[in-house]
Write a structure and sequence with these properties.
Blueprint: E1 2-8, E2 10-11, E3 23-24, H1 27-44, E4 49-57, H2 65-75, E5 79-91, H3 97-105, E6 110-116, H4 120-126, H5 132-143, E7 149-155, H6 162-175, E8 179-184, H7 192-195, H8 203-219, E9 223-226, E10 229-231, H9 238-244, E11 249-252, E12 257-260, E13 263-267, H10 271-275, E14 280-285, H11 288-299, E15 306-307, H12 308-315, H13 319-322, H14 326-330, E16 334-337, E17 340-343, H15 351-359
Parallel strand pairs: 1-4, 1-11, 2-3, 4-5, 5-6, 6-7, 7-8
Antiparallel strand pairs: 8-10, 9-10, 12-13, 13-14, 15-17, 16-17
Helix pairs in contact: 1-2, 6-8
Bound molecules: iron/sulfur cluster.
Residues 11, 14-15, 18, 20, 22, 57-59, 91, 114 line the site of iron/sulfur cluster.
Length: 366
């Protein structure tokens, strides 16, 4: 079974750090967009069974009630497995009884809320439109309808000191929701922060915050199952795990990516092209080597790592024979335990550096 990602590229305002594919919401564009989305799905979907649907953005919750109902009609095209996880992303300021009822009545069983911070100074810096009081009220309301809730937590803001961070972490823990996605703020190109030439926080402070998050959430019973994601047992995201397991998924909508039958593709980010039915920007068949590399890059994001026996069964190649694994185990970057190859806990923070070493043939098994 495959997963589905659906991108809704509209937002009511633009956050200072955002480099996602998004536009300011306009009802006329949204109406046209949903028509194009329906056409793309009808054209590209193989009518196979679906195990997870993630409706993200952008901000899906900024659509009007009629547009959201229209979106749910479109989703009925899919052959949905009875246990399918269906996630809908919401911004705090959009949450209302009316919206939560619509989501519940239309089969949504998981919601993901973009809180980012409780600190009003941080929220203003990010150009988020909610405040601390509103977060608490809205999460309380959302809990009346959903128990499978993720919240996003952004830390390491350039204006943030350690005590601001600690108080934010405390607030997130007190929410007592079953899933947290944490992000250290990165200043990407073509964002408001990059135009303003804002400097990132010091790396050591960023690392100190990350370690504190891991330790505190672990103590509160969260499983650290992926480098940035924490879940109470049983609440790990099916959709995200599908991606990190290098399994197949459809991506529909502007700027979406997908991976279907050895074909990886990326949709256009140009709204006009998309509305005219020119959905794809790039598509390419991946080689066996690229597929193995993806399996490693994605799989090592999981704290449990990669099952090397499954790797062999899938590719008929011993991972140690093809990649620079043995020497990295000897050097203390990786560990192999009960057939699971993983990055050592104290090295997770330098994951990208380790991945480069694994894929670098030059260093192979020195
Ligand atoms: S971070 Fe989310 S809400 Fe903010 S502009 Fe980007 S897509 Fe929109």
């Amino acid at each position: 079974m495959r997963g589905v990602y659906i991108h809704i590229p509209f937002c009511k305002s633009i956050c200072s750090y955002c480099d996602f594919c998004k536009f300011l919401y306009s009802p006329s564009w949204a109406g046209e967009y949903l028509k194009a989305l329906e056409r793309e799905i009808k054209e590209k979907y193989d009518n196979d069974e679906i195990k997870s649907i993630y409706i993200g953005g952008g901000t899906p919750s900024c659509l009007s009630k009629e547009e959201i109902l229209n979106l749910f009609k479109i989703i009925k095209i899919f052959k949905i497995n009875s246990k399918c996880e269906i996630t809908f992303e919401l911004n705090v300021d959009d949450i209302s009884i009316n919206l939560l009822e619509i989501l519940k009545e239309n089969g949504i069983n998981r919601i993901s809320i973009g809180i980012q911070s409780f600190n009003d100074i941080n929220l203003k810096f990010m150009n988020r439109k909610h405040n601390k009081k509103e977060i608490k009220e809205k999460i309380k309301l959302a809990k009346n309808y959903f128990n499978n809730i993720n919240v996003d937590f952004m830390f390491a803001l350039p204006i943030e000191n350690y005590s601001m961070f600690l108080s934010d972490l405390h607030e997130f823990i007190n929410l007592n929701v079953p899933h947290l996605s944490t992000y250290s703020l990165i200043i990407e190109d073509n964002t408001i922060l990059s135009y303003k030439k804002i400097e990132p926080i010091k790396e050591e402070l960023d690392y100190r915050m990350y370690k504190k998050i891991c330790k505190s959430l672990n103590r509160k019973g969260y499983v650290h199952y992926e480098i940035s994601n924490f879940a109470k047992p049983g609440y790990e995201s099916v959709h995200n795990l599908n991606y990190w397991n290098n399994d197949e998924y459809y991506g529909f909508g502007l700027g979406a990516h997908g991976y279907i039958s050895e074909l990886r593709y990326e949709n256009t980010r140009a709204l006009n092209d998309y509305l005219e039915g020119n959905y794809r920007l790039k598509e390419f068949i991946i080689s066996k080597r690229e597929d193995m590399e993806n399996e490693i890059i994605l799989g090592l994001r999981k704290i449990n790592g990669i099952n090397i026996k499954d790797f062999f069964d899938k590719f008929k190649i011993n991972i140690q024979d093809e990649f620079n694994i043995t020497s990295l185990i000897k050097k203390g970057y990786l560990e192999l335990e009960d057939n699971f190859l993983k990055i050592k806990e104290d090295k997770i923070y330098i994951m990208n550096e380790i991945l480069n070493k694994i894929l670098d043939k030059g260093e192979q098994n020195e």
